[in-house]
Amino acid sequence: MNNKKGFTLIELLVVIAIIGVLASIVLVSLQKARSKARDAERVSNFSSIRQASNLYYSEKDMYPKPPITYCGVLSDIWSDWNPPTHNCWKTLVPATFIVATPIDPINDAGGVNCSTDTTGVCHTYHYCWLNGGKNFTLAVNLENPPVRNYTAPPGCATAGPNLYWIAD
């Protein structure tokens, strides 16, 4: 009787295949969790920006005005938020209003000009300065669908498949 102990090549290949399938499932789940964490950071950043903008408004009687106009008329201006090329947020950064300028977690180097983006998923913050500084809208395209369905914000020339925005 030949009683050899060990695994056959087929058994080893089956175990390796099962481990490979399980590893790929874990990696896909991890990637989804990371994108949801980045979306949560975006929503949190919007809360910080809203607070800083409201503090600015209470002191200056208008919301911060971007120096660069991409579209709109003088009373309605929208601008990308991310520095360095579209840094119109120096007015908020002194510790009086906000400690540091929040930027998108994917576009952390900044400088993306979303006015020329044709994909509709440009990950940068859009700020709409409305009614001569009496109102504003912040918008961003999330990586995952938001909790509720958003239409394009009023007076703001931005949209996308997973649009999220706040307004004051």
Proportion in helices: 25-40%
Strand content: 5-15%
Largest beta-sheet details = 4 strands, antiparallel
The rounded distance between the terminal residues' Cα atoms is 84 Å
Can you characterise this structure?
The protein contains one helix and four strands. It is an alpha+beta fold. Strands 1-2-3-4 form a four-stranded antiparallel sheet, covered by helices on one side. Strand 2 (126-130) and strand 3 form a beta hairpin.
Brief description of this entry?
The protein has 168 residues and is α+β, with helices and mostly antiparallel strands. It has one helix at residues 9-60; strands spanning 77-80, 126-130, 135-141, 163-167.
Topology:
Blueprint: H1 9-60, E1 77-80, E2 126-130, E3 135-141, E4 163-167
Antiparallel strand pairs: 1-2, 2-3, 3-4
List keywords for this structure.
4-stranded antiparallel beta sheet; 1 helix
